[in-house]
Amino acid sequence: MCMDYVKAFLIGGAICAAVQILMDNTKLMPGRIMVILVCLGAVLGAVGIYEPFTKWAGAGASVPLSGFGNTLFKGIKKAVDEDGFIGIFKGGFTASAVGISGALIFSYLASWIFSPKMKD
């Protein structure tokens, strides 16, 4: 059990380190790098590489933005199989709704606790 945590930490850290190296050595803006990670996760999911990687790496692969892209792909694939063409539009929302809602709710609660200030 403890080894799962260590593996997730090392894999997640390696992904973050690779992204930091990309940010430091290119002129890409952080927003574009985030889009690249989401698209990379979706493409690797479509090819069938990301799912076995996630099973092996655990949360280290599913928590970064590439994992979000893979979740979007899986949701769209499932919705297209069930509902046809309309699944392209609703599958990603259905698959990622819990994670997005959690992020919004916890961010809102954190803003109450820590009282953020706007920059001038």
TrEMBL record:
Q: Which domain of life is it from?
A: Bacteria
The cross-references to Pfam families, in alphabetical order and at most eight, read:
SpoVAC_SpoVAEB
Q: Membrane: is it a keyword of this entry?
A: yes
The protein's matches in InterPro entries, at most eight in alphabetical order, are given as: SpoVA (IPR005562)
Transmembrane annotation, as ranges: 30-50, 93-114
UniProt entry keywords in alphabetical sequence: Membrane, Transmembrane, Transmembrane helix
Alphabetical list of PANTHER family matching this protein: STAGE V SPORULATION PROTEIN AC-RELATED, STAGE V SPORULATION PROTEIN AEB
Please identify the protein, giving its name as recorded.
Stage V sporulation protein AE
Q: Which organism is it from?
A: Anaerocolumna cellulosilytica
- Provide the organism lineage as a comma list: Bacteria, Bacillati, Bacillota, Clostridia, Lachnospirales
